[in-house]
Design a protein that fits this description.
This protein is an alpha/beta fold and 329 residues long. The chain is 39% helix and 17% strand. The chain contains 12 helices and 9 strands. A 9-stranded mixed sheet has the order 1-2-3-5-4-6-7-8-9, with helices on both faces. The longest helix has 19 residues. InterPro entries: AB_hydrolase_fold (IPR029058), AB_hydrolase_sf (IPR050266), Hydrolase_4 (IPR022742), Peptidase_S33 (IPR002410).
Length: 329
């Protein structure tokens, strides 16, 4: 699919409505909530559990990296959505500003579309990082459509998240007696600040120091190289950062004061968390604490050892084993 125009691309090995036993490999734009949005479907058997992927960021579309999870194809039918304000959906709709409200409605319409397309009563949700915010809210509010919710890099509350990771960073810097780095952090003033704009500015400094001491593993160039290897890649995809820059600021403002504790602790569907044990970008300790407080018809917490914020890419074998365990396949 390399080189296809992202405005009109559509690849179909089999685009039937869940033709039993048939291979699924479809890239398409679908009319969702007033705009055309990009979905990529992949799987070896259309009758397998269908799972909607909610990517992180905001703005960090995962469809162009879906090929890295091809080992999942024999077990699930994955549907990767470029959210409003991200990826190919953003390129096609450069003035469509995402909000919690329209993203939640987007999810609802996509879920209904997938139920019909694959003739399923329930769709699963797999959410990562930022995607766990809208995914958790949707799972709480619309259990009638969902088979389960899987949270990875689970965000509980962004402000608490940053306070915890900041203090852990200071602790580790003191351990190695890096006074220069400590001074840099202390000169920033209170962290994360009072507004999202202030937080985003300071966060860049914190993340660079965390990367320096091995707390997180962010590599933008490696990410770009991975995208370029994707069969979905088109050169226009490299311009999404510029498009997202003017679409996402208001969403960050809306996200900043969010907390899962503002929503019921009782879920009506199975809830599974698969977390990187060493995740300090979104501290897994907060996800574990929240998970222990919720109730659900079935729930399970799996910690992936020696993994950080993207355990599905860092420890693919262990992660797939965990996914198969909770999904039951």
């Amino acid at each position: 699919m390399k080189g296809l125009n992202p405005v009109s691309e559509k690849r179909t090995t089999n685009n039937s409505h869940a033709a039993t036993g048939k291979f699924v490999d479809v890239a398409e734009y679908v009319d969702i909530n007033g705009i055309k949005q990009f979905l990529y479907h992949t799987g070896d058997f259309a009758e397998n559990q269908v799972i909607l992927h909610l990517h992180g960021g905001p703005g960090n579309a995962f469809s162009n990296k879906a090929y890295l999870l091809k080992s999942w194809d024999s077990h699930f039918t994955m549907v990767y959505w470029d959210q409003r304000g991200a990826g190919k959906t953003a390129l096609k709709n450069p003035t469509s500003v995402p909000t919690f409200a329209n993203l939640l409605r987007d999810i609802d319409e996509i879920i209904l579309y997938l139920k019909k397309k694959y003739n399923k009563d329930k769709i699963g949700i797999f959410a990562h990082s930022w995607g766990t915010i809208i995914g958790s809210i949707y799972a709480n509010q619309h259990p009638e459509h969902l088979a389960f919710y899987i949270g990875v890099g689970q965000v509980v509350a962004p402000i608490e998240n940053e306070v915890v990771t900041y203090h852990e960073t200071i602790r580790r810097l003191k351990e190695i007696d890096d006074q220069e780095a400590i001074n840099i952090l202390e000169k920033m003033g209170a962290y994360p600040g009072e507004r999202a704009e202030e937080f985003l500015s300071k966060m860049g400094v914190v993340r660079q120091l965390q990367k320096k001491i091995g707390m997180i593993s962010i590599n933008p160039q490696k990410n770009v190289e991975a995208i370029k290897q994707s069969p979905l890649f088109h050169p226009d995809d490299l311009h999404t950062k510029k498009v997202c820059a003017h679409l996402l600021p208001s969403l960050f403002e809306e996200m900043f004061p969010y907390s899962l504790y503002h929503y019921p602790l009782t879920y009506q569907i199975p809830v599974y968390y698969i977390l990187g044990e060493d995740d300090w970008q979104v501290p897994s300790v907060l996800g574990v604490d929240y998970f222990n407080k919720i109730s659900a018809p079935d729930k399970e917490l799996i910690l992936i050892k020696e993994a950080k914020h993207t355990p599905m890419l860092e420890k693919p074998h262990e992660f797939l084993k965990a996914m198969r365990k909770v999904v039951g396949c």
